[in-house]
Amino acid sequence: MKDARENNTLKARLQLLNEANEKEKKQLEDQMAQVIHSQAGQLASQRQKISTLQRALEAELAVSMNRIVEQEKEIKWLKRSVMSPMCSSWRTRSM
After folding, report:
1. How far apart are CA 3 and CA 52, in angstroms?
2. How far is Cα 43 from Cα 35, in angstroms, rounded to an integer?
């Protein structure tokens, strides 16, 4: 009889321990899910910031490239302007 009572007591304690373990397991799983969700949100935010920066850099690059093209045109025009009077004055001197 004593063994049966002790056996029931041990079964009850084992059941309580199992319930405590399950509860702790559930809490840890919930915490892990929150961490994963939080990290996913942070990753999405970082991706969005990177995309925004990339678009801004692409726009800045386009402006710079246009500026370079305009400057090259201006340099060519200035070279022609400088060379034209020099060539004509050189021609008049040699005649």
Report:
1. 72
2. 12
